[in-house]
Amino acid sequence: MSTSDTSMQPRDEATAPRMVRARGFGLLLVLTGAVAWIASGILVLERIALYKNPDYVTSCDFNPWVSCGTVMKSTQAALLGFPNPFLGVVGFGIVITIGMALLAGARFARWYWIGVQIGVSLAMVFIIWLWSQALYEINALCLYCMIVWAMMIPMFLYTTARNIAHGVIPASAAVRRAVAEWTWVATTVLLVLTAASIVLRFPGAFFGA
Question: Which end of the chain, N or C, is less surrounded by CB atoms within 10 Å?
Fold first, then answer.
C-alpha cells in the first residue's frame, strides 16, 4: 500500500499539527479502532450467548437503565437483519489496518481518503442514530455501545480534520489551519455533551432512584 498521496506536499506534513500528520493520525486510528473493536467483539460474544440462552444475563446488565441485554433485544440492535456489532468488528478492523499502514509509512491517494471519509461519516451518522434510539426509544444504555460512541467521536473528527488539512476536502487555508489546530476542542466538547446527555436522561443510573 504505497500509492502516492498527492493531496499533501512533504513540507506541509512536517509543519501540520501532530494529530493530522501520518504517524500521529495513524496512532489515533489504531488506538480508537482497537478499543472500539474490542467493545464490538464483546458485544458479539454477548449476543451469541443470548441466542443460545434467552435468559442469559449479560456482563453489563447493571440496573434497569444500564442493561446491554435490553438493548440487544431491541429491533434497533439488528438494523440490517443481523446484530449491529458485526458491522463494528469488520469496520473497526479496517480502521486499525489503515492506522497500522500509516505507522508503517504507507501513503494513499486522494480517492482512497475520500472513501475513508465516506465510511467514517456513515459510521458516525449510524452512531448518532443509535445514541438517539438508546436514549429516547429503547430507554436503556449499553456500556460497550457507549465505549464505541466515545471512540467514534475523535475518529470521525480527526479523520475530517486530517482530510481538510491535507486538501482532500477543499477548504481555504484559514479553515485548514483552524480545523487542524482546534479539533481537540471540538472532540472534548462533543464527548462532554454526549456524557451530559446520558447523565441527564438517566440520572437514576448515576445518582440513584
Answer: C
